[in-house]
Design goal:
alpha+beta; Factor Xa Inhibitor; 3-stranded antiparallel sheet; 3 strands
Length: 65
């Protein structure tokens, strides 16, 4: 059976932490942020972890990394 290829779009969007958790950036911060208050904008800057239900799918996409 051939090796699985890394999904290149996933490789650009996700990072694996030292404790093998998967980190992602938050959505909704590219434009039209005038309607958001400052607190919301600030919270969107921080990275988040991928949820447990999605983690298996993302890990498989990053498998060959």
């Amino acid at each position: 059976m051939p090796k699985l290829k890394t999904n290149k779009s996933a490789k650009k969007r996700f990072r694996i932490t030292g404790k093998k958790k998967i980190k992602r950036t938050r959505a909704n911060k590219s434009h039209l942020m005038v309607s958001f208050n400052g607190n919301r904008v600030r919270k969107l800057r921080k990275a988040a972890l991928v949820s447990k239900s999605e983690e298996k799918v993302v890990r498989r996409m990053l498998l060959a990394e």
